[in-house]
Amino acid sequence: MSSFSLAASRRGYSYFVLLKKRCPSFKPLLRNLHFNGKFRKDPILNLTRFLCSKSLNPKIPKEPTWEPVSEDQLPPPTQIPPELVDKLERLALVDFRTKQGLECLEKAIRFADQLHVVDTTGIEPMDSVLEDRALFLREDTATDGGCAEELLQLANKTVEEYFVAPPGNIPLPKKEERSSMLKHSEL
Amino acid sequence: MAASRVAANELFLNIKLMPKRYPKALFLFRQISTSRPHCDKQPEPRTKSAPQQLVGVVGLEIHAQINSNTKLFSGSPVRFSAPPNSLVSFFDASLPGTFPVLNRRCVEAAVMTGLALNCTINKRSYFDRKHYFYADLPAGYQITQQRRPIAVDGVLTYSYFGGRKRSQMIRKSVQIKQIQLEQDSGKSLHDDARGQTLIDLNRAGVGLMELVMEPDMKSGEEAAAAVRELQLILQALGTCQGNMSEGQLRVDANVSVHRPGEPLGTRTEVKNINSIRYLSRAIDYEIQRQIDAVQSGRTVQNETRAYDSKSGFMPEPNLPPLIVYEDNASLPTGIDPSQAVVVQKIKDRLPELPGVKRDRLVQTYGILPEHSFTLVNEDGLMEYFETLMKTTQREPRKVIGWVTNELLGHLKQRDMSVSQSPISPAHLAELLKLQETGRISSSAAKQVFQEMWRSGGKTASQIVQEQELGLVHDVAQVHSICQKVVDSHPDEVYAVRNGNKKVLNKLIGLVQKETKGRADPVLVKEILLQMTQ
User: Fold this and answer.
1) Is A90 among the domain residues?
2) B111 reaches A (C-beta below 8 A)
3) What residue of B is the nearest CA neighbor of A164?
């Protein structure tokens, strides 16, 4: 594998040199690659990246084909009340109670709101790209199991062939307790 | 209700949502008054004079473990007890890169159950993921069929003995909202001493059928009868072994109270039920608790998880829709037969359901529906009865009493099952023959039965001989005894001669006392009548 990549690197480099002379638009791309510390080490990747660039691949349009969606087409911006923040934090087990966190969330929602511009009347939502495939049905014969040792080795803590977990769910502190705990938060 | 008082303690330990304000004292059980039994189809009439009674509303969520060799989405074996984590595949442990592969047997089981319960089978059903965090759910989600399950809109008809004397058989029905396929979770053992939970994933991924019932039931008795009927149906189909104590059939009851016509009250869930008897008691207890709370002005609090509402669902992206076909004609061309589940084929394979069995018994043997209900309800009793009928010449109506009263009574008293009965059908047949041929009287027969039970193995003839219980037919002997009685009771004889027939019974009784009940009653009566002319 290593000998192949070395040969390719030598060949690749010579190709780059050739193309640099032929295609001026290639220059900025190459400049990027040149300053990329990994230039020597990922020649195949660089080659692929190069071949996928706008100028070479006909499937990539020359000019952007999308237009920004104007604000008036979108539904009103979603407010995120503190109870909702609460609920989301519980479900996702992620703290994002800072101003920055909420702004980020609002921006993300706004970005997704652009989907409302698309007319979807009479169209069933798609669950999976596999929806046209036939669901494979398996015979009811035992083919798995019996690998307790292997599985237990993956766990950090085990006790006599059982996995060990912390007791039940550690409940999040109640709302009142939480507000006193997070007095420092900007909310 | 002594038994229920004793069980009150057990209830306190088991009901999950026991409010802390009720101390651990013994509670007296009161029978919940349900609405009139025959008005299951008629609406409640509104009485304008007095405020209506609070009635209970019970909805059941039943999880039945599918009787299959392997799990729902993996090829791990399904067994009740095995070394911990020995029946777990990489998919069951949710290691990355593993995918669910659906077990055909589970689909067929769900379709069969749906057909037996008169459901509409959805030809196209979808799988979803229900997300929640718990240590025994390694993936963090359970694959289920919330949106579009495999079967919907069914009905379960059941009966129970109700009325004032519990002798009237009441038929009811409950609507089944849906039947869906879903995964079971693992088992967690809590070690509070060391503050840790031990997880065994043997059960994780086993196929379950969740049956969601509408809240059509009003009491624990009705719920218990419905679950019993469902158990019998599932066992007859072979789709679930229905053993509640082994966790193969799990029932959660949603209980609330309201006045008929008014909106439903807050409901609470009763979980961790491991027998039908306990189900009935737990539900009745909860109804009574709620009635007391509402009547004294308090509110019923729903203490389930605060965020367990319908959040956390998303479609399962790794499974395309499940398609089942109506009949062979609707199969697409070139499809592998092992890949097609055909509803018509399953319908043709349906075995005899309990309801049909009961009707057949009534037809074949001419017994009452109440009797056939009891026969089918008790495990093995129907087989016992049918074996008995093969060897005896007596009429079924005469035999049924022995089976449902004597035999069953003795079994129930000692909490035994039919298979443990010390009296086999052959022995009982012999006893019945002795009674029929006049060798022993009815009362003697009961005595012999008791003795047969106690001795466990002695035949009826042996016992009759040993205890000299055989009827005396010797006319001369009976004659002399009757003469003795008549001679010693002239007043009674005088009364009979003057038309008082009731005194004759007293004389017969005296004769029987003399003969220790061994005299043929017909003969005695004949002789006495003769003598008193």
Assistant:
1) yes
2) no
3) B198
Q: What is the pLDDT of residue B71?
A: 97
Nearest to B248 by CA among B68, B122, B120: B68
**A5 vs B209: which has the higher pLDDT:** B209
Examine the domain organization and report whether A82 and A109 are in the same domain: yes
Do B196 and A162 lie within an 8 Å CB cutoff? no
Token pair in block for residue B280: 């009935």
Domain count, chain A: 2
**Tens of pLDDT, residues B102-135:** 999 999 999 999 999 999 999 999 999 999 888 8
| Contact residues on chain B for A161, CB-CB shorter than 8 A | 83-86
Cβ(B327)–Cβ(B342) below 8 Å: yes
Q: Give the Cβ contact number of residue A125 at 10 Å.
A: 6
d(CA B220, CA B289): 13
For residue B280, how many other CB atoms are within 10 A of its CB?
A: 22
Flag whether A113 is in a domain: yes
Among the partner residues A131, A160, A165, nearest to B199 by beta-carbon distance: A165
- Kindly determine whether residue B102 and residue A167, on different chains, have CB atoms separated by under 8 Å: no
- Residue A43 lies in domain: 6-53
Q: Give the count of alpha carbons within 13 A of B43, CB side only.
A: 6
Give the DSSP per-residue string, B359-387.
HHHHHHH---HHHHHHHHHSTTHHHHHHH
Does B173 have pLDDT greater than 70? yes
Q: Is residue A17 situated within a structural domain?
A: yes
Tell me whether residue A89 is in a domain: yes
